[in-house]
Amino acid sequence: MDWITIIVIVLFATVAAVCVLLALLGLAGTWIMIAIAIGIEFLDTYWGDGETWGWTTLGICVGLAIVGEIMEMGAGALGVKVGGGSRRGMIGAIIGGIAGGVICTPFIPVPVIGTLIGAVIGTFTGAVIGELSHKDPATVGEVAKSATGATIGRILGVLGKTGVAAVCWCILVVTPFV
């Protein structure tokens, strides 16, 4: 392994570590990390002396990233279910989490963290709206329990997604040296 490859991997490891932190904030850090790795792999395949990671390794990381996204989205819905909520509450939590992340980002003045706060608020609000739109509206306590479960689930989903991002980081940093 030549020194240029080592420098590229060290720089990649540093940028990818920031991407893991972005995943902790509920952003697409895992996908950014994988996109950078794919770019490096293309450059290395066509202008370098071989492969840095190999397409199989990158495919595994894409698969893990998909699992992380499913965990993040599904955890809010699962939180509604654990909290005793309905299917409408689950759907509301998913839609609310996405909408809250998008809508609140420009309105919450804290950079990057605004998206996470918006997603959590949106998950809670979506679960409440979903539960209140049910044919047999639940009591205030039941709605609050369901929405709280959705919010806790969303936070746990973000933590799970961050764990997946950390696993991808470890794979992408260690594999070139194996």
What does this structure look like?
The chain is mainly α. The chain has one domain. Helices cover 80% and strands 0% of the residues. It is built from 6 helices and no strands. The protein has helices spanning 3-24, 29-47, 55-82, 87-104, 113-132, 140-174. Helix 4 runs antiparallel to helix 5. The mean pLDDT is 86.
Short description:
The protein is mostly helical and 178 residues long. The protein has one domain (3-177). It is 80% helix and 0% strand.
SSE layout and pairing:
Blueprint: H1 3-24, H2 29-47, H3 55-82, H4 87-104, H5 113-132, H6 140-174
Helix pairs in contact: 1-2, 1-6, 2-3, 2-6, 3-4, 3-6, 4-5, 4-6, 5-6
- Which parts are unreliable, with pLDDT below 50 for 5 consecutive residues or more? none
Largest sheet: none
Indicate the structural class.
mainly alpha
Straight-line N-to-C gap: 11 Å
Radius of gyration: 20 Å
Number of strands: 0
Number of helices: 6
Give the % helix. over 70%
User: Helix and strand succession?
Assistant: HHHHHH
What is the overall silhouette? elongated
Share of β-strand residues: under 5%
Query: Averaging pLDDT over every residue, what do you get?
Result: 86
Number of domains: 1
Task: Give me some keywords for this one.
single chain; 178 residues; mainly alpha; 6 helices; 80% helix
